[in-house]
Amino acid sequence: MIRKTSAASSTPQVEKKAVASHPGLPWVILAWVGAFLMLSWLGYVIALRAGVVQAAQESSETRSRLSEIIPPDAGNSAPLPDLTFALPVQAVARNTSLHTIIPDRPRTSAEKYTVEAGDSVFSIAQAYKLKPETVLWANYDLLNDNPNMLSIGQELKIPATDGVLYTVKEGDTVESVARQFKAQPEDIISWPGNHIDIADPKLVPGKEIMIPGGQREMRSWVVPTIWRANAGANKTINAACDTSGASAYGTGYFMWPTDNHSISGNTFWSGHLGIDIAAATGAPVYAADSGVVVYAGPIGGGYGLMVMIDHGNGFHTLYAHNSQILTRCGANVSKGQVIAYAGSTGNSTGPHLHFEIRYMGAFVNPLDYLQ
């Protein structure tokens, strides 16, 4: 018996068998791709490692060759080549400083200074490296050329250099001012603080200028010399008290009038015709030599309480700024006798003894006579 089979039914059966015969084909392809990638990565890693090893070997060989040429301590001892320049170099050597250094430039104009306790014209001038006359001349309106007029709190003008500080008057010229103060016209013109036009050196009335090296006569402010009766010498003024019974005479040799032998402030100079001896208030003041007291009491000129002794041999001694006087006018005193207590009366910036020695009315430096 023959079985008939239709064409429509046979075709699907064949396709089903073909598909069913290869069920894992996609997975095989993926496996091959993964294996390829794995082999490629492994090859890259092997090549990279080989390159690193080779580079390390080359570096080791290089260090070995260099060690044969360069000694082991070359980093500490190997000399460097000298630095040379094709062209000469001009330079100024300067040490490095971490701090700002303010240059000490000289002053060209006057500055103000307020007087303090213990000051003197001489000590102030020393502090500014000036002559005391320069300070005195610049402050005539306050001191009138008298250093004993110095007082605490005064505001002084301190010139920038030695000479005269001058206020120009109507009609003044550089030449006339230079003649007046015995200075050189060129010095006045060239002083930077004067601001004078070199091409047309005219002075402006009312303007204050510096006259470097200038000088002028100083007004004398001193206590007149007082002589004992019948002294046989020219008298500055007559005796201030009756000394007719005086009989004490000096030896001509002078002892220090205080226990302290040091100068405090003014020493002997043209504007201060005596010395200021350091002495505390109440310290004893001794007669420097025997003689007769010709003045004992307060007096003007900034001296305060003062004692003057005529030694009968042409010499006089003067003791000023005392706090108390222990003798009287007309009394005989012996060398070393306590005649007063030191102080700061009159014009004084602190306790001290102002001491003078005069010979025949002329002022002499006490430091040349004290023993």
UniProtKB/TrEMBL annotation:
<dbReference type="Pfam" id="PF01551">
    <property type="entry name" value="Peptidase_M23"/>
</dbReference>
<feature type="domain" description="LysM">
    <location>
        <begin position="164"/>
        <end position="211"/>
    </location>
</feature>
<keyword id="KW-1133">Transmembrane helix</keyword>
<dbReference type="InterPro" id="IPR018392">
    <property type="entry name" value="LysM"/>
</dbReference>
<dbReference type="Pfam" id="PF01476">
    <property type="entry name" value="LysM"/>
</dbReference>
<feature type="domain" description="LysM">
    <location>
        <begin position="111"/>
        <end position="158"/>
    </location>
</feature>
<dbReference type="InterPro" id="IPR036779">
    <property type="entry name" value="LysM_dom_sf"/>
</dbReference>
<keyword id="KW-0812">Transmembrane</keyword>
<keyword id="KW-0472">Membrane</keyword>
<dbReference type="InterPro" id="IPR011055">
    <property type="entry name" value="Dup_hybrid_motif"/>
</dbReference>
<dbReference type="InterPro" id="IPR050570">
    <property type="entry name" value="Cell_wall_metabolism_enzyme"/>
</dbReference>
<protein>
    <submittedName>
        <fullName>LysM peptidoglycan-binding domain-containing protein</fullName>
    </submittedName>
</protein>
<feature type="transmembrane region" description="Helical">
    <location>
        <begin position="25"/>
        <end position="47"/>
    </location>
</feature>
<dbReference type="InterPro" id="IPR016047">
    <property type="entry name" value="M23ase_b-sheet_dom"/>
</dbReference>
<dbReference type="GO" id="GO:0004222">
    <property type="term" value="F:metalloendopeptidase activity"/>
</dbReference>
